[in-house]
């Protein structure tokens, strides 16, 4: 089995009207054995910036710790939070630093700019950034995720509709991938609040 | 065919490990203690490459104690688990340790906790978990029979069910297991589950002969 499909993962981020949603599955597995159904893949960097990391779980944890450290250092120096585009460039640079011995994780970054417009982007494991206007996906179920998102997505959805669309897309896709799934978690972020919901899906 | 598993009960955490030391097809001993007591309220159960197992667990134990001596207070279980993960992760892309481990601890405010830490330093907090080939059998047993806040008797019944399953269904299964517990009274050995006794010294059917080797030798100052 390839190293990026050792632990299994599925991640989506979608853009709505002045909001964004980021969702992931919750399985932690070792090849075909499931270890836990409450693994955290989406991490809050600050109130309006979230990063989801798919791929090898150990690198997910290491990347999260390093990014947290770098952002806290930035906050101390600049006395403000990092903007999403800046953070995406930071992630890209950190991944390319390890070009010839990379972290086996593929992040998706989702945030709200200062003016409230949503920002999403994804990078590959060596930091090639890809911005998008509608949705980004990552993980072992990425092919199913692309199909589900493409058919279900509509622009300018409100927070509630966006939650429905992203949840249905996630659950439909992970049901077709045996090493991801076992529940889901969705964060819908607007300028004033964050709504976090866990999804009950097929536990298989 | 090493096997290690653990579970969290009402105010305690149990760790169970097999006690076979195997080199290729030879069982060298069947009373090898693979669960190290890190400090008064922490256990570290380790399986994997023998040299790495002993080396890494002793290194972690000494560093946990060093923190306590330097700072005057012991590390929390979460901190100890994250420290161990950090050491494994740093070594991962240089010269990796091939050890899988489970960390169990008890603290006054958090109560008991159990962590899964595999050889590529994936850390996860769990209520119940296992590693090795035995895990293929006992994870589903634990899914079926485990409840939150089990009493010690019920937990030991579950542990015995798991050991029985591993013994009957795993080819070349380890004969002996050790059970250690950590609760408010500290980390200590709780029980053994033996089917084979390790022999001490050469077998003899007659009374042992007196020889210089078997006498106590006192040193004249």
Automatic annotation (TrEMBL), chain A:
InterPro entries: Ntn_hydrolases_N, Proteasome_beta_3, Proteasome_bsu_CS, Proteasome_sua/b, Proteasome_suB-type. The keyword Nucleus applies. It comes from the Eukaryota. SUPFAM superfamilies: N-terminal nucleophile aminohydrolases (Ntn hydrolases). One of its GO terms (cellular component) is proteasome core complex, beta-subunit complex. It is found in: Cytoplasm; Nucleus. GO terms for biological process: proteasome-mediated ubiquitin-dependent protein catabolic process. Keywords: Cytoplasm, Nucleus, Proteasome. Component of the proteasome complex. Belongs to the peptidase T1B family. Component of the proteasome, a multicatalytic proteinase complex which is characterized by its ability to cleave peptides with Arg, Phe, Tyr, Leu, and Glu adjacent to the leaving group at neutral or slightly basic pH. The proteasome has an ATP-dependent proteolytic activity. Non-catalytic component of the proteasome, a multicatalytic proteinase complex which is characterized by its ability to cleave peptides with Arg, Phe, Tyr, Leu, and Glu adjacent to the leaving group at neutral or slightly basic pH. The proteasome has an ATP-dependent proteolytic activity. This is Proteasome subunit beta. It comes from Physcomitrium patens (Spreading-leaved earth moss). The gene is LOC112288283.
From TrEMBL, chain B:
GO terms for cellular component: cytosol; nucleus; proteasome core complex, beta-subunit complex. Its main location: cytoplasm. The keyword Cytoplasm applies. Keywords: Cytoplasm, Nucleus, Proteasome. PROSITE patterns: PROTEASOME_BETA_2. Residues 194-221 are annotated as: Disordered. Non-catalytic component of the proteasome, a multicatalytic proteinase complex which is characterized by its ability to cleave peptides with Arg, Phe, Tyr, Leu, and Glu adjacent to the leaving group at neutral or slightly basic pH. The proteasome has an ATP-dependent proteolytic activity. Component of the proteasome complex. This is Proteasome subunit beta. It comes from Physcomitrium patens.
């Amino acid at each position: 089995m390839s190293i990026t499909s050792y632990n299994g993962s599925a991640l989506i981020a979608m853009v709505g009207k002045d909001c964004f949603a980021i969702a992931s599955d919750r399985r932690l597995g070792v090849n075909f054995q499931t270890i836990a159904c409450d693994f955290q893949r989406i991490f809050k960097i600050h109130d309006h910036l979230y990063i989801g990391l798919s791929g090898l779980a150990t690198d997910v944890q290491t990347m999260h710790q390093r990014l947290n450290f770098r952002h806290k250092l930035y906050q101390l120096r600049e006395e403000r939070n990092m903007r999403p585009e800046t953070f995406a460039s930071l992630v890209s640079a950190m991944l390319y630093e390890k070009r010839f011995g990379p972290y086996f994780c593929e992040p998706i970054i989702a945030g709200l700019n200062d003016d409230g417009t949503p920002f999403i982007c994804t990078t590959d494991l060596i930091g090639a950034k890809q911005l998008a206007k509608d949705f980004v996906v990552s993980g072992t179920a990425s092919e199913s995720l692309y199909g589900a998102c493409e058919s279900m997505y509509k622009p300018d959805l409100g927070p509630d509709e966006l939650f429905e669309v992203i949840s249905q897309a996630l659950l439909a896709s992970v049901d077709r991938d045996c090493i991801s799934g076992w529940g889901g978690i969705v964060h819908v972020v607007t300028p004033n609040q964050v709504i976090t919901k866990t999804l009950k899906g097929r536990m298989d | 065919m090493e096997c290690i598993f653990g579970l969290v009960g009402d105010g305690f955490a149990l760790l169970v490990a097999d006690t076979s030391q195997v080199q290729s097809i030879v069982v060298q001993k069947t009373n090898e203690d693979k669960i190290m007591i890190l400090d008064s309220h922490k256990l570290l159960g380790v399986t994997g490459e023998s040299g790495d197992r002993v080396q890494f667990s002793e290194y972690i134990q000494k560093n946990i104690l060093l923190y306590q001596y330097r700072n005057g207070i012991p590390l929390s279980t979460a901190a100890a688990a994250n420290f161990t993960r950090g050491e494994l992760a740093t070594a991962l892309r240089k010269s990796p340790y091939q050890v899988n481990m489970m960390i169990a601890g008890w603290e006054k405010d958090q109560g008991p906790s159990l962590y899964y830490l595999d050889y590529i330093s994936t850390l996860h907090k769990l209520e119940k978990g296992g590693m090795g080939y035995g895990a293929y059998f006992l994870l589903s047993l634990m899914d079926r029979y485990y409840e939150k806040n089990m009493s010690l008797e019920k937990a030991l019944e579950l542990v015995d069910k798991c050991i029985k399953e591993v013994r009957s269904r795993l080819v070349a299964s380890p004969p002996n297991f050790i059970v250690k517990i950590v609760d408010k009274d500290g980390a200590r050995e709780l029980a053994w589950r033996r089917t084979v006794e390790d022999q001490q010294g050469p077998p003899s059917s007659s009374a042992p002969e007196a020889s210089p080797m078997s006498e106590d030798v006192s040193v004249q100052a």
